[in-house]
Every structure is written in C-alpha cells, then in structure tokens.
Write a structure and sequence with these properties.
This protein is an alpha/beta fold. It folds into two domains: about 120 residues, 3-Layer(aba) Sandwich (Cobalt-precorrin-4 Transmethylase, domain 1); about 100 residues, 2-Layer Sandwich (Methyltransferase, Cobalt-precorrin-4 Transmethylase, Domain 2). It has seven helices and ten strands. The strands form two sheets. Strands 3-2-4-1-5 form a five-stranded parallel beta sheet, with helices on both faces. It has a five-stranded mixed beta sheet with strand order 6-7-10-8-9, with helices on both faces. Helix 6 links the parallel strand 6 and strand 7. The N and C termini lie far apart (about 45 Å). It comes from Halanaerobium saccharolyticum. Belongs to the precorrin methyltransferase family. One of its GO terms (biological process) is cobalamin biosynthetic process.
C-alpha cells in the first residue's frame, strides 16, 4: 500500500457492526492511530477492533486535551495531526480510527483539515461507520423519519427558547451529549408535553448499553458521556 491516510469509522461497541472494508484496510495499514483523552489510557475504538485484527506494534495513541480553552484544544489537535503527518511523510499508510462515523462529531475531521492545510496532495480515504443514532433506533425498532418527516441532530443546546423552536419545527429531534444538554431540554419537553415521547440510549452497542423511555430516571442521576435522546413528536 502506498502512503495514504484512512479515516475509519469502527461503529459502536459491537465488533460485528464494523464494516468489511474497514477490517480489510486495518489489516493492511502500517499504523493504526486512535484518539485518547489526557485522562485515560483506554480506547473504545481499539477495544472494538482488537479481536478482529492483529494490532501488535502498529498502534499510535494520540492524546487530546479535553478543554474549553480553544487555544489548548487547537494545540492538542495540531500535535496529533503533526504525528500523523510525520508518518505519512515517511511513506507510511496510516488509519485513524474513531467510534461511530468519522464525519459525525469526530476528532477525525480536525485531523483531516490540518493535514490538508499542510499538504493537499496526500491521498485520503474515509470509510463510514455505523453511528450511535442508527444503533439506538435499530435496537428499539424505531424509525427516525418516515414519509415527509424532518429530523434534527443537535449537539449543543443554546437555551430553552432555541430548543423549543427546534421541537416545533422537526418531527424527530436527536440530542447528543445528553450529559451536558439534559438540564436545558427537560423543562422544554415538560412544557410541550413531550416527556412521554422520548427514547434515551446510553453506550449503544457496548456490553453495558442502557435504554429507557422514562426521562425521570435522569433527573437525579449522573448521565454517562455516551448518551443520547431521541424525541418523536408523534410518540415512541
């Protein structure tokens, strides 16, 4: 394989949901890069593929600082991208693995932009992965959209007025990163009479995945990072 960067979505926790194309590429590349936070040494993406391919001596762990400071975030991302770029300059083939899909709120997008800024001649291929939204809907046999319905995906809720407008405009609303958005969403759902129309899914595809339609469970309970909520105006 000639030098090339692959962005590989390895889906959610279940190894069986990793695509055949992803497995084939990961078996052949020189290095597999995975993002880690500065507070952890484990990678969920590596856990998913560890029994599918031989990773021995091919893993590069890239640490990203979890910070609200934009300058610190930029420095962390630039350092990680620089490591990948260095390997590519050495003529290596590199795969950057990420849970879910590479282009749905993934660190991969930042890496890609940086590397393209430095050298837009580098050959890049992105392989899609099954995301948590699709997994949650499938696990519950819940259509995300039918006919002429519209669906919104939100990651950052600005305020209650903002989210109320979204609920009124879209038949289905998916709220990601619920741990930081729950306090804003809850009173609006209560006001609009939508509390009974939700599916909350946590750690989709992993062994400790959790699903519930009872929103009250999380009023006084810590919400795990990998948790989302699907709200359907016509009901679950």
């Amino acid at each position: 394989m000639a030098k090339k960067l692959y962005g590989i979505g390895v889906g959610v926790g279940e190894p069986g949901l990793v695509t055949l194309k992803a497995v084939e590429i990961l078996k052949e590349v020189d290095y597999v890069c995975t993002p880690l936070s500065t507070k952890s040494d484990s990678s969920k993406a590596l856990e998913i593929i560890s029994n599918l391919i031989d990773l021995k001596d091919r893993v590069i762990k890239l640490r990203f600082k979890m910070s609200k400071n934009k300058q610190e975030l930029e420095q962390s991302r630039s350092a990680a991208a620089q490591k990948i770029y260095q390997l590519l300059e050495e003529g290596k083939t590199v795969a950057f693995v990420t849970i879910g899909d590479p282009f749905l709120y993934s660190t991969y997008a930042y890496m890609l932009k940086k590397i393209q800024e430095w050298d837009n001649s580098i050959n890049i291929e992105t392989v899609p992965g099954i995301n948590s939204i699709a997994t949650a809907a499938s696990s519950y046999n819940l259509p995300l959209a039918e006919g002429k319905e519209n669906t919104a995906i939100l990651s950052e809720l600005k305020n209650e007025e903002h989210i109320e407008k979204v609920f009124n405009l879209f038949e289905t609303v998916v709220i990601l990163k619920l741990s930081r958005n729950f306090k804003i969403a809850y009173p609006v759902l209560e006001k609009l009479g939508l509390k009974e129309n939700v599916l909350i899914a946590s750690k989709c595809g992993f062994e400790d995945e959790f699903y519930t339609e009872n929103i009250e469970v999380f009023k006084n309970k810590k919400i795990e990072y990998l948790t989302l909520m699907i709200v359907k105006r016509k009901g679950i």
